[in-house]
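User: Hey, my collaborator sent me this sequence without any context and asked if I could get a structure. I don't really work with proteins. Can you help?
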Amino acid sequence: MRRVSGSTGSRGCGSRKAGGVYLCTGLAEEGLPLSHFMIDPVRSLDLEAFRAPIVFKDPYNENLNHVLIWVGAEHYPSPADFLVECQFKGASRRIPAEFDLSDLTPGASRMVLVHPKAFTKRIDEPNWCPKDIHPEKPEPCLGAHWRYAGALGSKPKRGPDGDIPEHFVVGDLSYRGDGQIEVRASEFSPGAFLQLPVTHIEYQAKDVKDDGPDVLKKHDKQGWRVDIVDDPGVYVSPARALGGDPDEEEGV
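Assistant: No problem. I've predicted the 3D structure and written it out in structure-token form, which is a compact way to encode the shape of the chain:
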């Protein structure tokens, strides 16, 4: 395990929570583009919202497991919001502090992201096609979600004279969604839209002396890279420490 300092800033689901454990996908200058990891067309899943990650077996390798992670529409109304955030900040998804990672394989297991409005049967011209697919028979494209953002409730970017047309905000980032289309929420349902390698685990320290729960040592022995992150901006003050369990809060 190593100790690092820094802040990830504001994300669509808010700021980091002291005492939180996060599955992360970092950025790399020589890494693959985010589009390489997008699931396009989106894979429809018959699932209700879930909080804890769901471990599942790789359909092509019985010795390998992956994990499903829910991306809530209350923080990311459109999958485009989450994809834009991942492109510039990488992925950071909070998991229960004592979640057992022993069924996952460091360097091989992936987190598969599920959004409640990712799947649709609509066929609309996308702003861009993540996979540069040109099928003989038209099919839904994940790239069209940039055009659905407004109708699905993505936060508009505000200028000095009001909302800026076809511009949206997620956390402290903004993006364009040219050619917005009016759609109905009922046309969308849960789907897997992104599969990412888990590059490391981060623990958000409560104070400068906090080494995290014992389970982090177990993760480290299993071969996971574990970073203990110091950020005074989210340290738990003595007053906050008496206020409750941070695991009860919704977090990034």
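In plain terms: Confidence is low (pLDDT under 50) at residues 240-252. You can pass these tokens on to your collaborator as they are.
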